């Protein structure tokens, strides 16, 4: 009983840590890493986790190795149903060659392939798809996946929204930056300008006879001498 309780607590802590990692992601790369780590921590004996993220309108792109989920076939049919599917393997022709050893049909009885679409509820489309090779799922594993799907979908939508906002911001700022660049004046070398003025003044003093134009006048405060010199 104590052993079961310890295992349950360990799984619970692992689940919480995994969900916290998902809550912190703000870009696609960290999203992929967090999804992989989360699935590996929650499901039994995971052999592989392939993370596809929506790019554009329909391209589901994976980065390890880089390839796109086929637009047609059994996997796309399951993704289109927007429901998780556990099966005895996936069509080899629809998988990357490095995925086939873990996911291609037919899999032995102790192995299963899991297709997990992560949904954008507002749009009614899958914004990410996970292909997982692991042992058959228990009821507890299914519950963990239910929780994972909800939190992972929120993380995907957040990253998607941030990317869209950044792209719009860059597009809107580009014309302003270009305009400012056009209006920005060229830097002036004031030191060089001062040097030329002093040189000109010095040349004028050397060629012009000195005339003492000083004179004195009286003010209520006493005599004041005013000196004027030509430059």
Descriptive overview:
Keywords: Signal. Residues 1-15 form the signal peptide. This is GAF domain-containing protein. The protein is of the alpha+beta class. It has two domains: 8-164, GAF domain (Beta-Lactamase, 2-Layer Sandwich); 193-226, no CATH class. Helix content is 49%, strand content 21%. It contains six helices and eight strands, in the order H-H-E-E-E-H-E-H-E-E-H-H-E-E. It has helices at residues 2-24, 28-42, 74-81, 100-103, 139-183, 190-207, and strands at residues 48-55, 59-63, 66-68, 85-87, 112-120, 125-134, 215-219, 222-226. The strands form two sheets. Strands 3-2-1-6-5-4 form a six-stranded antiparallel beta sheet, with helices on both faces. Helix 1 runs antiparallel to helix 2 (28-42), helix 1 packs parallel to helix 5 and helix 2 (28-42) packs antiparallel against helix 5. Residues 1-11, 181-190, 203-208 and 210-231 have low confidence and may be disordered.
